[in-house]
Specification:
By secondary structure, the protein is mainly α. The chain is built from two helices and two strands; from the N terminus they run H-H-E-E. A hairpin with a 5-residue loop joins strand 1 and strand 2.
Length: 75
């Protein structure tokens, strides 16, 4: 918004810089919160027994991300 006001001649470039100084830390905080939320979801899945386990298949080859449900098969 400050950039638009600057381009229209309604604000100085100093106002643009001030707005950016407020924006960048806010974006950084948002990024950290999103990462923390994703980690919390992963911890929840693990706590509920969701599968990120690596198990050997029938042929002895270890496959990452195998299904946690024994009735489901890989394609």
């Amino acid at each position: 918004m400050a950039t638009t006001r600057y381009q229209e001649g309604k604000a100085s470039y100093y106002e643009v810089l001030e707005a950016q100084q407020l924006l960048f830390p806010a974006e950084n905080t948002l990024s950290r919160l999103e990462a923390a939320r994703r980690l919390a979801v992963i911890q929840l899945y693990k706590a509920l027994g969701g599968g990120w386990e690596t198990e050997p298949s029938v042929d002895g080859v270890v496959r990452s991300g195998s299904s946690p449900h024994p009735m489901e098969t890989e394609s």
